[in-house]
Amino acid sequence: MILEFLRTLLENQIPQQPSQQHLLVKYILLTRDTQTLHSLLQYQVLSNSLELARILINLGSSETRRTATHTASHTGDAMEEEESKQ
């Protein structure tokens, strides 16, 4: 429903309000629909805003932390496995 509303705004050349975008991005993140977020960013449906930049930076840094933790645990598991073989 939110996407349809923003599409209608775009079709009628009505400027989006930052709060509308913020609501959409929060919904997308809650539903973990990163493909939709990627598409909206790629096709410049979302307007540049400070709030959007903050959300994307936080998303990127949390993803980086999650990936680093995941990688570290796999590296640790591999090292423990190697040590147990010796």
Short description:
This protein has one domain (2-85).
Explained architecture:
- The relative contact order is 0.09.
- The chain has four helices and no strands.
- It has helices at 2-11, 18-30, 34-42, 50-85.
- With 86 residues, it is mostly helical.
- The model has no long low-confidence stretch (mean pLDDT 81).
- It has one domain (2-85).
- The chain is elongated, with a radius of gyration of 19 Å.
Defining key terms:
mainly alpha
Distance separating the two termini: 59 Å
Number of helices: 4
Question: Mean pLDDT score, rounded?
Answer: 81
Number of beta strands: 0
| Element-level helix/strand string | HHHH
The residue fraction in helices comes out at over 70%
**β-strand amount:** under 5%
What is the overall shape?
elongated
Number of individual domains: 1
Return Rg in Å. Answer: 19 Å
How does the helix and strand content classify structurally? mainly alpha
The main β sheet shows up as: none
Secondary-structure map with pairings?
Elements: H1 2-11, H2 18-30, H3 34-42, H4 50-85
